[in-house]
Amino acid sequence: MLDRCGREIDYVRISITDRCNLRCVYCMPERGVTCMRHEDVLSYEEIVRTVRALAALGIRHVRVTGGEPMARRGCLTLVERLHAIPGIETVSMTTNALLLDGCVAWAKEAGLSALNVSLDTLNPDAYRRMTRGGDVSRALSVIGEVLALGLQVKDNAVPVRGMNEEDLPALAMLAKDRPLCVRFIDLMPVGCGAALSPIPTDKVLARLCAALGPLAPDAQPHGFGPARYVRPEGFARSIGLISPMSHEFCGSCNRVRLTADGFLKLCLNHTAGLDVRALLRGGASDDELQAALAGAIAAKPARHGFFENVGDREARRMNEIGG
């Protein structure tokens, strides 16, 4: 499926809840969070119907997100249903891993292809501060279980000045002896993240080079997203860099997002999109749903416009949009 810029759109990120067991500093405020009403969130049946329509249009890869997706009951049953949809090749999940404790084998049986674990530091105190209460040892235990069962896993880390910049080389070392890629992602100026200070990719790279030695480019694909990879000498896996702010990659963007309340977002920084929930609950036929999705995706914005005066700039928090 091509949009108006000729980009092939084959990847959808689906938020199934805005709720989370943590309160990460760039995602949610510490308190005073008003969650979506139960009746406003798409049911699993509505999500499956939407993904069937998207698969018919050429979507091949689905990522389940939140909030924390495992905070919603039946998450892995949904994974199983999405995995069974004709045309869907991979179903993955972005998670903080804590609620997956004891469920990893079930996740694999359900057809989960890969996990991206949000882990910004290995320092217990820094992790507790950044997540506002999380236990890093539990997250590392789940990662170990995932690796033992042979599932693909990546660590996603957001470098934030004054919080975890000293810990970045230690995080990268997770890829030295484990079959696990570590990826550093630009802090996005959305919601709570707009009040924090990012560490640009070039400075992250300089810090890693100083600690780990030369970083050779790695052209091997490690998924379906926009990361570029490097690998220090002697490392089992690579280090990824996702840099939409410091190295814009809008020209090759292949994704759309479906929020928990059923809005198809075409770009993180734009409010333009499609109210899928209104179609689903308004009696739209499968053909009408598919046509509306195709029309919306065709109009995907050319660029995110974070450095410009965008008229439809997104104002919601990341947990409301989907991580």
What characteristics describe this protein?
single chain; 323 residues; alpha/beta; TIM Barrel; 12 strands; globular
Silhouette = globular
How would you classify the quaternary structure? single chain
Number of strands: 12
Compute the number of helices: 11
The average pLDDT value, as a whole number, equals 92
Cα Rg:
19 Å
Would you identify the CATH architecture?
A: Alpha-Beta Barrel
Structurally, the number of domains stands at: 1
Largest sheet: 12 strands, mixed
What does this structure look like?
With 323 residues, the protein is an alpha/beta fold. The chain has one domain: TIM Barrel. It contains eleven helices and twelve strands. α1 (44-57) crosses α10 (286-298). The model has no long low-confidence stretch (mean pLDDT 92). Strands 7-8-9-6-5-4-3-2-1-10-11-12 form a twelve-stranded mixed β-sheet.
Topology:
Layout: E1 11-15, H1 44-57, E2 61-65, H2 75-83, E3 90-95, H3 104-109, E4 114-118, H4 124-131, H5 136-148, E5 152-157, H6 168-172, H7 174-177, E6 181-185, H8 201-212, E7 215-218, E8 228-232, E9 239-242, E10 255-258, E11 263-265, E12 273-275, H9 276-281, H10 286-298, H11 318-321
Parallel strand pairs: 1-2, 1-10, 2-3, 3-4, 4-5, 5-6, 6-9
Antiparallel strand pairs: 7-8, 8-9, 10-11, 11-12
